[in-house]
């Protein structure tokens, strides 16, 4: 069942839409309402076709023209919508590691939540767009166990998104895995971070849910509490994000959206990235979880927080 909030526009005509966008940007200024209405009512696949039709008709790059005509948060939103998902993720990661400092929260969000195929597409898109190796760039910009776990996630090993095979070394029994986690953390003086990385990075979601259940039965505490007690810093945040996505990706993103809008100021880049990236995947689920968990409408909270 499709759980996205954006669908294909019926009666779609790429050439007609390309002409409408050209006219909206022609002359002095641009018709931002027309641009917004058209682009947000098309699916990503249709937007890509509009880009191709625009170049065929006018010999110009539509995204470049949109960047020239628009500014600020509105430009970031529209341009993000125009990129294929993998290229949008690639741009977000490139921005996260560019210049001085690193946006670790962005790296965590993308690499902890994407499927095997999405990770594969991201790596290829990054190479195509920037002629650079994504893993090498991440390794060069991060450190320690945080870096090691990001590299593991880049290998896209989660078994529930690959063919099942009982002979694979990570298809171990849940009881074995939860004991390994206990011995790596709660029962050990210090912490065996490598064991946490191996289990949380290389077991299937289905397997890990069983591991978490067994862990709770044996230790009397949820795995999240043990991670908070045993790990620290960005590594802790990354491992918690992995656990949350294993339990419920929709709940993870609902929480990310809520935190992006609560308190003083709105983390606009986070808000834009999530709304764009999940609009054709599970936005309906995220909306439901958001309303249940926070007793607020995601629509209304965005209207208030984003000045709409």
UniProtKB/TrEMBL annotation:
UniProt cross-references to SMART domains, sorted A to Z: ANX
Membrane-spanning intervals of the chain: none
Stored Pfam families: Annexin
Keyword field contains rRNA-binding: no
Plastid as UniProt keyword: no
Predominant subcellular localization, coarse grouping: membrane
Locations listed in the record: Basolateral cell membrane; Cell projection, Cilium; Cytoplasm; Melanosome
Family named by the database record: Belongs to the annexin family.
PANTHER family: ANNEXIN (PTHR10502), ANNEXIN A6 (PTHR10502:SF19)
Record comment regarding domains: A pair of annexin repeats may form one binding site for calcium and phospholipid.
The protein's name in its UniProt record: Annexin
């Amino acid at each position: 069942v499709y759980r996205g909030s954006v669908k294909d526009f019926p009666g779609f005509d790429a050439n007609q839409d390309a002409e409408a966008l050209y006219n909206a940007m022609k002359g002095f200024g641009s018709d931002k309402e027309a641009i917004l209405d058209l682009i947000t009512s098309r699916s990503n696949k249709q937007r890509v076709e509009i880009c191709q039709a625009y170049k065929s008709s006018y010999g110009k790059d539509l995204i470049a023209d949109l960047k020239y005509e628009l500014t600020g948060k509105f430009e970031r939103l529209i341009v993000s919508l125009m990129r294929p998902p993998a290229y949008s993720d690639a741009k977000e990661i490139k921005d996260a590691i560019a210049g001085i400092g690193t946006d670790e929260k962005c790296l965590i969000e993308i690499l902890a939540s994407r499927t095997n195929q999405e990770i594969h597409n991201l790596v290829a898109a990054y190479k195509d767009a920037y002629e650079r190796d994504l893993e090498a760039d991440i390794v060069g910009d991060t450190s320690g166990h945080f870096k090691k776990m990001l590299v593991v996630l880049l290998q896209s090993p989660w078994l529930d998104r690959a063919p099942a095979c009982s002979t694979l070394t990570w298809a171990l029994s849940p009881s074995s895995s939860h004991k390994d986690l206990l011995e790596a953390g709660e029962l050990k003086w210090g912490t065996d971070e490598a064991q946490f990385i191996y289990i949380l990075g290389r077991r299937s979601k289905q397997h890990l849910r069983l591991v978490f259940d067994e862990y709770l039965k044996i230790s009397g505490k949820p795995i999240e509490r043990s991670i908070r007690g045993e790990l620290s810093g960005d590594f802790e945040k990354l491992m918690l994000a992995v656990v949350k996505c294993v339990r419920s990706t929709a709940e993870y993103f609902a929480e990310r959206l809520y935190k992006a809008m609560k308190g003083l100021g709105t983390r606009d880049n986070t808000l834009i990235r999530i709304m764009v990236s999940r609009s054709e995947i599970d936005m309906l689920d995220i909306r439901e979880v958001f309303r249940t968990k926070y007793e607020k409408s995601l629509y209304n909270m965005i209207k208030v927080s984003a000045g709409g």
